[in-house]
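WARN no homologs supplied; continuing
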Amino acid sequence: MSTPTTAAKPTGKANTPRRVILASLIGTSIEFYDFYAYATAAVLVFPALFFPADDPTAQLLSSFAVFGVAFIARPIGSILFGHFGDRIGRKATLVASLLTMGVATVLIGLLPTALTPGWEIAAPALLALLRFSQGLGLGGEWSGAALLATENAPAGKRAIWGTFPQLGAPIGFILANVTFIIISYTMSPEAFQEWGWRVPFLASAVLLFVGLWVRLSLLETPAFTRVVERNEVVKLPLARVFRRNGVQLLQGTFIMLATYVLFYLMTAFTLTYGTSPSDAPVPGLGYARIDFLWMLIAGVVFFGVFTLVAGPLAERFGRRKMLGAVTLGIVVFGLLWVPLFSSGFVGTMAMLVLGFSLMGLTFGPMAAFLPELFPSNVRYTGSAIAYNFSSILGAALAPFIAVALWRAAGGSTLLVGLYLAAAGAITFVALLLTKETRDQEYVENSSVVIAAEEP
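OK structure emitted
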């Protein structure tokens, strides 16, 4: 895909490691906070507030359907922001993606509900539109943050630096859910249902301003600067990446599949199953909402820890070999889904800890691995499309499919576990068909080699 070339002359200015790490981490933390705030509300309050119906299952499935709208928007966002990320640069595009998602999140906190007279149709329609906007922003966010980290990384440390934007996922999850818990503790259930659920969405405005302040202070990445200096900016990155890197797009899409399915089963589905009454016609585990949220937060701590562990492992053993071993672990985990879930509190906590640990190990190297599949003049577009097209297959459908399988099995989660194992098997095959990218140098800043892409 590329061949080494001579070193570029230093420009005299560069992003400091602290600035790069902070900007990539804080941006994704804010983006994922916004995203998970909606995911939590989609389970806890949105079914009743925006989709009133006699059947609770219909309410929940309607809420999850709008939840999935963002995943349809994400590939569109990846094309839109990927185009500008490869045309005008990573920095400006990252600022735009953050604004798109941040403003949509704040507006969700201001929406009337379907229980408001005259808003029965408009409220859920506007919720879907704002959810679409959230997905649009996140579609451009991840790749930009990943490139910000990895295109500034020293030689041999791309996977390590790439774990910092990935760490935004567990941090955002914890921030969103702790906010919901604090609100639940400090107000009555009636007040929470009436207006308290709005607070996490409105509070994101503060985080948005912090993220913008950090990102506006950045310099452009060395890789994109080099593309401009060599006059290699592509007019239509989308056309170029599909024409020359179609195989890599497919590989990246299916490499991410198991990661997406695992995460959205571990969060959106387990929250539904864990808090459903044990004596219901379709029984769940019967935990109180607050108790299970604390259990999830404890599990997500392991997600964060193993995200950081994954970087050094991917550098030592290579992306392909390391992810292959983790993916086999996900397949086995899916087969153990029912025995763990049926073993009381200890088994449930073990299941959450193990699942989120696997999530950290599979998610951590992706910020390095997916961009490495593409040359730098279409890297934003290529990695964004692969990452976000996979979100349709692995994330948008996962909670919906899992709830449908659980209901169809009369309360058993056996089919849900098999669904996860099947996703892992598909990802494992994709990894077998992909070349190792660890030793491929693709940027230079002083001592790091830049790769010259094909014209």
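The CA atoms of residues 340 and 350 lie 7 Å apart.
OK
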